[in-house]
Specification:
The protein has 200 residues and is an alpha+beta fold. The chain has a single domain (3-17, 31-198), classed as Alpha-D-Glucose-1,6-Bisphosphate, Chain A, domain 4 (2-Layer Sandwich), CATH 3.30.530. The longest helix has 28 residues, at 171-198. The protein has a seven-stranded antiparallel beta sheet with strand order 1-7-6-5-4-3-2. The protein is 27% helix and 30% strand. The protein has helices spanning 3-15, 44-52, 57-60, 171-198, and strands spanning 32-40, 64-70, 89-95, 114-125, 130-135, 143-152, 158-167. Bound molecules: 2-acetamido-2-deoxy-beta-D-glucopyranose (4 copies). One 2-acetamido-2-deoxy-beta-D-glucopyranose binds next to loops. Residues 1-20 form the signal peptide. It comes from Lophium mytilinum.
């Protein structure tokens, strides 16, 4: 390395912005990921409740139109158990790309954009403000785990962050077909949470 390139690389590293602080856990990168980050004028406790209250998803969520906790066989759990707990399963009905905002419980799906997925709740860490679920794939060619984290932003607002990393031989195909729609879904859900909690 010449002295000039050394000086250049040092000055570039000094100029690069400090990474925004995050409450998402570090995970190995995959083939691609979908993510969202938004500051919301609410408390972390209210944000946590909105994220974990699966029963209310149809009322506000343009991406995950319904989320039902089930036992390992896919049998729905009682209403009192429609909250995350490790090793519960989740049956999702999603729209990729998401529906336009706003949505409510009677907003019809676009059938051409409907997908379902069956997930395992892998981590529930209320003390850390973190929850995660992972796709139960029929084969091992696709792995996808979504972490969601709540924290307090530097501004004092509540910070919502969510990221799903996709791995495996099928991840490239998934990215080509749905990469953009999934990213729109994450962003749509984040904006919908903001509207829900800021009362818009
Ligand atoms: C997510 O994707 C972005 C953009 O491609 C990349 O910079 C980042 O490292 C990825 N993160 C993970 C955990 O995969
Ligand atoms: C969860 O959502 C349901 C459906 O909107 C609502 O009736 C219930 O009060 C919510 N629970 C909490 C603790 O917010
Ligand atoms: C629910 O959303 C639909 C559009 O998706 C709208 O036509 C309807 O008026 C909304 N209903 C209520 C009660 O806001
Ligand atoms: C579901 O997640 C729990 C908690 O991380 C784990 O113990 C269990 O092995 C997982 N089950 C499956 C089928 O992946």
């Amino acid at each position: 390395m010449t002295l000039l390139s050394l000086l250049l690389s040092i000055s570039i590293s000094l100029l690069s912005p400090v990474a925004a602080r995050t409450n998402l856990p570090p995970v190995a990168p995959g083939v691609f990921n979908a993510s969202a980050r938004i500051e919301i004028n609410t408390t972390p406790a209210l944000l946590w409740t909105a994220i974990t209250n699966f029963t209310a998803y149809p009322e506000w969520n343009p991406f995950v139109r319904s989320a039902i906790t089930t036992n390992p066989l896919g049998i729905p759990l009682p209403p009192s158990d429609q909250w995350p707990a490790e090793n519960r399963r989740l049956l999702f009905r999603v729209q990729i790309p998401p529906l336009p905002l706003p949505v409510n419980a009677s907003t019809p799906d676009n059938p051409a954009h409907s997908q379902t997925s069956f997930e395992n709740i892998t981590h529930v860490q209320p003390g850390l403000g973190r929850v995660a679920w992972k796709l139960l794939s029929v084969d091992l060619a696709l792995e996808a785990e979504r972490w969601t984290a709540v924290s307090v932003a530097a501004s004092g607002k509540a910070l919502y962050e969510s990221r799903e990393v996709y791995r495996g031989a099928l991840a490239g195909v998934l990215e080509a077909l749905y990469g953009e729609g999934l990213q729109e879904g994450f962003e749509g859900q984040a904006e919908a949470l903001r509207r829900l909690l800021e009362g818009e």
